[in-house]
Amino acid sequence: MRPRWTGRGRDRGSTTAELAAATPALALLLFVGVAAVAATQTKLQCADAARDAALAAARGQEGGLSRTQTAPDGATITISINGDVVTATVRAPARVVGTRLPPIEVSATAVAAREPDDAGIPW
């Protein structure tokens, strides 16, 4: 009796070749995922720092104080006051650990209403 499928020898090693071709694509996908997580984390830290800086500046306090508390490393905080509106912008580089690639620049902006002077407040 003759076997139904006789081309078995031609496919030997095809799984290894497919795995060898797919491994770099999987490594690249993993790297992009790690970079996205790092950029998102830095973006959230920038948003927290911008909010803190805007609220501090709206109260008349030092807005740059949030740099040491919530801002990521290498962040720059810009505060602008336009009438009764305080705008704080935080920019920071998002770096992927162990790479020599240029950092991704992320930023966040927060706006707060300026509080009135405490001249008429009894406390």
Number of beta strands: 3
Structural class: alpha+beta
**Helix coverage percent of residues?**
25-40%
Q: Quick check: average pLDDT?
A: 83
Q: DSSP strand (E) fraction?
A: 15-25%
Beginning-to-end CA distance, first to last residue = 103 Å
Structure keywords:
123 residues; three-stranded antiparallel sheet
Structure description:
Helix content is 40%, strand content 22%. It contains two helices and three strands, in the order ααβββ. The chain has helices spanning 14-58, 66-69, and strands at residues 76-82, 85-94, 104-113. Strands 1-2-3 form a three-stranded antiparallel beta sheet, covered by helices on one side. The longest helix is centred in the N-terminal third of the chain and has 45 residues, at 14-58. 21% of the residues are buried. The mean pLDDT is 83.
Task: Please write out the topology.
Elements lengths: L13 H45 L7 H4 L6 E7 L2 E10 L9 E10 L10
Antiparallel strand pairs: 1-2, 2-3
